Amino acid sequence: MRRVTSIADLRTALAAERRAGRTVALAPTMGALHDGHLANVRRAAAEADVVVVSIFVNPTQFDRADDLAAYPRTLDADEAALRGLGGAAPAYVFAPFEREMYPTTPTTTVHVGGGITEVLEGASRPGHFDGVATVVTKLFHVVEPDVALFGRKDAQQNLVIRRFVTDLDVPVRLVFTPTVREADGLARSSRNQRLSAGARAAAVGLPRALRAGVLAARVDREADRAPDPGRVRHAALATLASVPDVAVDYLEVVDPDTLAPPDAARGEAAGVPAASSSAPGPSRRLLVATAAVVGGVRLIDNVEVGDVEDEDRLLAATD
Ligand code: PAF
């Protein structure tokens, strides 16, 4: 495993790998690696010959300076965790300094429209997805991966990445890996390490709320009805709102392809095929997405109702 900090050095190394006929996977991260990241890296090793893990706390995706300052930076521990993967350890850790990624104040931004960046996280964190889409585009240009892997916890981010990869013909295959959860169901996140003991106990309200939403959807499905978005939302929100010390930012039930209200007209702008399983029917897909501030730490989580594997994983983790 080799740490590379310069774009030029990484390009040189990867060009040699490609000349030798090897394929390349990229797992982009902001460090503070946890089991979710490590599962992603293991999967990357199964998807390509050479794995690059990028570790870069991208300032342009933070809307608050205090949040950026508080973001954990643990490069040595991250590298030790990656080495611990043994045969699945990445060949390269790309850990650029800020001046390498942004030598001048950037004047070009990748902005994904179609209504998917203004809602949910985008409504609470203005400019966040421009920062994400721009830095991921830059990483794709630097690494030119055959495949790139992202965790499903960031469902909206994944939709944004899917959209610009399609719209800009970026030649990369995207793989979204299941959310890895703690024993009580809390989604693994780099932010969890900032939770006090009390906040950590309250944080389990997020996956429990999603569980309530899935169970409500299952009641509808068992009666051969399409899961009712209003009922799913009510069940999930009632659970989350009952947990003391959790300030709900949003809990929404949306179309997983457009992030629009499930019954809204399906927008061409988001490039969604006319016939989709998010149309009403027992197999209807709904994204239940939430963000809440717990003990001063902002956490997100989601589950895709109608994706039975995603539902089952959440139910098993919160049992
Ligand atoms: O999900 C993250 O950790 C970041 O948003 C990403 C994709 C590495 C871009 O900075």
From TrEMBL:
Residue positions of the active site: 37
Extra facts: The reaction proceeds by a bi uni uni bi ping pong mechanism.
Protein name: Pantothenate synthetase
Residues given in the record as beta-alanine binding sites: 61
Record GO cellular component, one term: cytosol
PANTHER family for this protein: CYTIDYLATE KINASE/PANTOATE-BETA-ALANINE LIGASE, PANTOATE--BETA-ALANINE LIGASE
GO function term, MF aspect, one: pantoate-beta-alanine ligase activity
Superkingdom, taxonomy of origin: Bacteria
GN (gene name): panC
Pathway: Cofactor biosynthesis; (R)-pantothenate biosynthesis; (R)-pantothenate from (R)-pantoate and beta-alanine: step 1/1
Catalysed reactions, as listed in the record: (R)-pantoate + beta-alanine + ATP = (R)-pantothenate + AMP + diphosphate + H(+)
